[in-house]
Amino acid sequence: MKFETNNTQVTLIQKKSQLFIKIAVCLILLGFTYRFYFPTPVIVVRDDDRKSRSSMQPETADETLPDHFPGNNTGIYEGSTECDIFTGEWVRDLTGPWYTNRTCSGIQQHQNCMMNGRPDTDYIYWRWSPFECKLPAFDPKMFLHFMRNKSMAFIGDSISRNQVQSLFCILSQVEEPVEVYHDEEYRSKRWVFESNNFTLSVIWSPFLTKAKIFEDNDGHSSGAVQLHLDELDPVWVDEFSNFNYIMIGGGKWFLKAAIYYENNTIIGCHNCNKANISEVSFYHAYRKAIRTVLNFIKKSDHELFAFLRTTTPDHFENGEWNTGGYCNRTVPFKNGEINMGDIDMLMRDIELEEYENAKEGMYGPVLRLFDTTRLSLLRPDGHPGPYRVFHPFDGNDGNVKVQNDCLHWCLPGPIDSWNDLIMNLLLRG
Ligand SMILES: *[C@@H]1O[C@H](CO)[C@@H](O)[C@H](O)[C@H]1NC(C)=O
Ligand SMILES: *[C@@H]1O[C@H](CO)[C@@H](O)[C@H](O)[C@H]1NC(C)=O
Ligand SMILES: *[C@@H]1O[C@H](CO)[C@@H](O)[C@H](O)[C@H]1NC(C)=O
Ligand SMILES: *[C@@H]1O[C@H](CO)[C@@H](O)[C@H](O)[C@H]1NC(C)=O
Ligand SMILES: *[C@@H]1O[C@H](CO)[C@@H](O)[C@H](O)[C@H]1NC(C)=O
Ligand SMILES: *[C@@H]1O[C@H](CO)[C@@H](O)[C@H](O)[C@H]1NC(C)=O
Ligand SMILES: *[C@@H]1O[C@H](CO)[C@@H](O)[C@H](O)[C@H]1NC(C)=O
User: Which of 88, 113, 89, 85 has its CA nearest to residue 99?
Assistant: First the structure.
């Protein structure tokens, strides 16, 4: 199975409490400006959309900010620290995205829906709004300030890359970063935002644990993955001590045919068609891998704030990625309009259980759940669909079968809201 389609894919040292009140007032005012609602908006993507947006940002003079993430539940988010920010709804937001295909150079072609000619633009005019509290919009200047001398890494599969590109695009509106590293296949990258000495990385490690993958860049597999469930992928572990913040996530790659190893011994396989190896459920493999990752983080002895991202749902309808499935909806679902698929539900259950187990007796590092599965499920309209390639219907009558991508997210798109969630969790501490 191939899910990559064809893409190579916040101790608040509190100063004066007045300062916090100022910031809080700014954020609340900012929050109100996002509460506009128009039933049938006239939607035009203009670059001034984001100019007007940035002019609304509070001036983030250095002295008025707490020293660094994470916060300690005081000040800025007073009253909302118990708020479940992952339960809510998508609301109309005519402010528009922070960036467009013209203002961000870091959008992967397969997710550059604007450039690729996606005709409708409604999907960029929504923002995530929790039921229990206000979720202030991400503030790139404030974020960069908090991240002085810090390093943050997104570790995982192509969804992690999708997410880092969203953050990159927003941050690059206030400062163009310098790329300081990429691997041979441009799958892992590192940038530095020099004015704040903030390092941002994305690390390609689709299984998180050690894996031998026999697949080319187009996703053609020439053999089952050899997956070690009790050994971590050195590609991120070797650099782990350099990171202050990590966003880690797994998911769909675990559905692939694989031979599972523990203690360097084959314990079974999934869909490997080898008579002498017994079938082991990929759920077992996923649980074991997530546990290996979380146990490692739990035992780490450097200052670390880690997010565990939950699995991401796809929205293929009337088929799968390779059997003509598509996703042509243009509005979000409302709560209750769609149920989570069995696989996503089981994978998320494993993530939640392993997260709770890991949190038990965890004293050094901070671990937070980044539970975006359900809010993502409500956005069938946010995927590239056929617009994963440049003008897919040019030169044909529109009936030609083109491969759809109903897993990754258009940039700009729904995944931009994930940054609001990160900011909130970092400020809460
Ligand atoms: C959080 O900030 C408050 C207000 O300054 C302070 O009294 C408290 O000790 C801090 N808590 C931690 C855990 O740092
Ligand atoms: C951005 O997308 C618009 C269509 O939405 C297109 O006209 C324009 O050429 C694109 N620009 C770039 C640099 O991709
Ligand atoms: C960042 O690091 C530099 C060099 O180590 C140091 O001089 C500076 O004070 C640090 N800044 C902050 C905000 O920690
Ligand atoms: C940048 O931050 C790193 C820690 O992340 C520190 O080691 C380095 O000295 C800093 N560099 C500058 C120029 O401040
Ligand atoms: C792993 O294998 C070695 C020998 O190959 C054995 O001594 C050890 O007990 C095994 N450990 C586990 C956890 O099975
Ligand atoms: C399965 O059989 C193949 C040859 O048919 C052999 O090379 C391999 O070592 C066997 N694997 C196990 C786990 O017994
Ligand atoms: C989506 O595509 C299907 C099949 O081509 C079509 O029947 C349906 O009307 C389309 N829906 C939208 C919202 O375009």
Answer: 113
pLDDT digits (tens, 9 = 90+) for 282-295: 999 999 999 999 99
Tell me, what DSSP letter sits at residue 185?
Answer: T
Cβ of 103 closer than 6 Å to ligand 2, yes or no, is no
Q: What is the mean pLDDT of residues 402-414?
A: 96
Domain CATH number, residue 111: 3.40.50.1110
Assigned domain for 408 exists: yes
At 208, list the tokens. Answer: 């998180």
Cα first-last separation, the chain = 39
Active site residue 408: yes
> pLDDT-based confidence at 429, cuts 50/70/90?
confident
Query: Residue 158 catalytic?
Result: yes
Domain hosting 255: range is: 17-428
How many domains does the chain fold into?
A: 1
Give residue 122 CA to ligand 1 midpoint distance, Å: 43
Q: In which band, very low, low, confident or very high, does the pLDDT at 81 lie, cut at 50, 70 and 90?
A: low
The token duo for 235 is: 């590609």
* Cis peptide bond prior to 140, omega within 30° of 0: no
pLDDT at 236 over 50: yes
- Closest atom, ligand 4, to C-alpha of 148: 2
Q: Judge whether 9 lies within some domain.
A: no
How far does residue 147's CA lie from ligand 3's centre (Å)?
Answer: 11
User: How large a percentage of the chain has pLDDT more than 70?
Assistant: 80
